[in-house]
Design a protein that fits this description.
With about 180 residues, the protein is α+β, with helices and mostly antiparallel strands. The chain contains five helices and eight strands; from the N terminus they run ββαααβββαβαββ.
């Protein structure tokens, strides 16, 4: 593995970069969007501190966490994070979230399609996996359009906040998929 940390990358419409403490006030409303909508309250100081801890955790050279900035507006619109690293198998897991008003515009697919080759070719990961709940098919379309392959379904594997139990759909990309 050639751990080089979160590097700034650009696509046609996006800048993918590290999140810094100075960004927290502008990014927190995107990161905590669901909680803000559900509670009707603004971002709390506790949430700001939690986001600062997240930044600190992902600041080391062997961690990978990008915020997504829309080029034309300069707005934070989401994030892509990689976690559950395994140096023996050179694998990790992808996770992402997008601001509600920026969904269904291809931004997340564009970001993921940029980051997967970077992590495999530049950093040296062999396998990147991800999954989504069956009631969120848009997430599966992101992974598929970005080049990840369907691997299978874990039946009744995830409990939603409302208590419903749904299937988890799994995808991955391995080094050979890039050739």
């Amino acid at each position: 593995m050639n751990h080089i940390g979160t590097k700034t990358l650009e696509t046609e419409r996006l800048i993918l970069r590290k999140l810094y403490v100075d960004d927290v006030k502008n990014y927190a409303p995107v990161y905590y969007e669901r909680e803000i909508i559900e509670s009707g309250k603004p971002v709390s100081q506790k949430q700001v501190e939690s986001l600062k801890e997240r930044i600190e955790y992902f600041s080391s050279i062997d961690k990978y966490y990008w915020v997504i900035v829309e080029k034309h507006s300069g707005d934070f619109i989401g994030e892509v994070v990689f976690f559950d690293y395994d140096d023996n198998t050179r694998s990790c897991v992808i996770g992402y979230q997008m601001a509600i008003n920026k969904r269904n515009k291809g931004y997340m697919t564009e970001a993921v399609a940029c980051l997967l080759p970077f992590l495999i070719l530049e950093v040296g990961f062999n396998r990147i996996s991800g999954g989504h709940q069956a009631d969120n098919p848009a997430s599966g379309r992101v992974m598929s359009k970005a080049g990840m392959k369907y691997e299978g379904t874990l039946r009744q594997d995830f409990a939603n906040k409302d208590g419903t139990i749904v299937d988890s759909i799994l995808y991955s990309m391995i080094r050979q998929d890039l050739k």
